[in-house]
Structure formats: structure tokens, C-alpha cells
Design a protein that fits this description.
This protein has two helices and 14 strands, in the order E-H-H-E-E-E-E-E-E-E-E-E-E-E-E-E. With about 230 residues, the protein is mainly beta.
Length: about 230
């Protein structure tokens, strides 16, 4: 359950329709056959340029094979109201088995070759688990899709994130280094932006205690220049 930006709400609505739930990353070898008995067979040695090209190709193939299909990076974690909380981004290089791209009103499906999931837990319970395993995921294209950037949401286990222990999660623009949440009691919570390795997908996350109200959410670059100021969160 979440109270988030209009764009994330639109994606969440599509996911609900598609998922029926609640929504919101071997080498081979060959051997030459022996020649006729009594005769030795030989092949010309490759020149240095050819050998270099072969070596580069082999390294490329090896790197491709070793690239993990699922990469997970913890964005933030801690304790709030006596419960452990955590947020992680989970990037699937290819659409996982059992996942179907959500449909759009015009009868087409959302574009995407990969999947980016935002896994949020409070007290060991995953937020939006009622919607199924993909309720907090959105399709993306490859490792550098700009679509998720700029989104922000306030998430909780009940009442659409309006009360109880909540998690503020932002998927900021590339120049955002950290976010600062100012509560109405004057307390400030700072959260650093974390990026999923090998991708441009990033987020920062912070926990909001039960009974506390957000006065403002600000984002800053690495030189501590304020980039955004938002007072629409409560």
C-alpha cells in the first residue's frame, strides 16, 4: 500500500489490473580429427592480430556468462517503532518466469525487457505482499531505462501508508546524492542515494515512525546544493 506520486499511482493501477493485487532489477573446446596414418597434419599459426581478437571475444563471452541474472542492493535498513525495516532494489536482467507484462488501456502491453522490484519490509512483512510476488515491480528496458527516475512514495502496511510505521522511498534523478526528511517536531532524517551495481537504477529510503508527520522532503547533490523541496507529504 502506498501514497506516492501520480506517475507511480498510474503504474500501480496497471499492475493491479494485471496482477489482481495491490501495487505501486561455458567455454567449448573442439579437437581435430587425426589425419591419415603416417602423416602429420598442421595448421598455420594465427597472426598476433587474429590471436588478440580471439582473446577479446573469449573475455567478452566469459563476462557475459558470469553476469548475474538478478542483482539485489540494499538501499536502507534499521529499526522503527521497535521493528526492523529494510528496502532493497532487485533488478532482473530478463523478465522472470511467471511474470507477465501489464496491459494498457489501448490493448497493448507495457514495454520492457527487464524487471525492477522495490522490496520493502517492516517487521518481516513485505509491503504490498497481498498483490503477489510482483506487486512492487515495474518493467524496464535494460540497465539504463530512465523511466523510474523522479518517483517518490510513502509506503506502509495498512491504511495506504497514511499512518503506522511507514517507509519513504525515492527513485531520484542522477544528480541527487541524498534526501532529507524534516518532521513537524523538527527531527531530520537523512538518507543516502544507493545505486544497483551495473545499472543506473538508484534509490534512497528512510523510515517514518508512527504518529509523526512530514513537514518537508528535500533532495541535495553531492555538493550539498538543494535540488528539490516538497511539502506535500503528511
Amino acid at each position: 500500500m502506498a501514497l506516492s506520486s501520480a506517475r507511480k499511482a498510474a503504474v500501480a493501477a496497471v499492475a493491479v489490473a494485471a496482477l489482481g493485487g495491490v501495487s505501486f532489477f561455458g567455454a567449448s573446446a573442439s579437437e581435430a580429427a587425426p589425419g591419415p596414418a603416417g602423416h602429420a597434419s598442421s595448421a598455420p599459426a594465427p597472426d598476433s592480430a587474429s590471436a588478440s581478437a580471439v582473446a577479446v571475444a573469449e573475455r567478452s563471452v566469459s563476462a557475459h556468462r558470469q553476469a548475474p541474472q538478478v542483482v539485489t542492493r540494499v538501499i536502507g535498513k534499521g529499526r522503527v517503532d521497535g521493528h526492523r525495516w529494510s528496502v532493497a532494489l532487485e533488478f532482473h536482467r530478463t523478465l522472470p518466469k511467471g511474470y507477465t507484462l501489464p496491459g494498457l488501456p489501448d490493448g497493448t502491453t507495457m514495454p520492457g525487457t527487464s524487471l525492477l522490484c522495490q522490496r520493502m519490509y517492516i517487521g518481516g512483512v513485505r509491503i504490498d505482499h497481498q498483490g503477489g510476488p510482483w506487486s512492487d515491480c515495474q518493467p524496464v528496458t535494460g540497465t539504463n531505462d530512465p523511466a523510474p527516475a523522479g518517483e517518490m512514495g510513502l509506503w506502509g502496511l495498512h491504511d495506504k501508508g497514511l499512518d503506522g510505521s511507514r517507509l519513504m522511498v525515492a527513485n531520484p534523478e542522477p544528480d541527487v546524492a541524498y534526501g532529507v526528511i524534516t518532521l513537524t517536531n523538527g527531527h531530520r532524517i537523512k538518507a543516502e542515494t544507493v545505486t544497483v551495481p551495473g545499472t543506473t537504477y538508484r534509490a534512497w529510503a528512510a523510515a517514518i515512525p508512527d504518529g509523526q508527520t512530514i513537514a518537508a522532503v528535500d533532495q541535495y547533490d553531492s555538493r550539498h546544493h538543494q535540488l528539490t523541496h516538497d511539502t506535500n507529504w503528511h
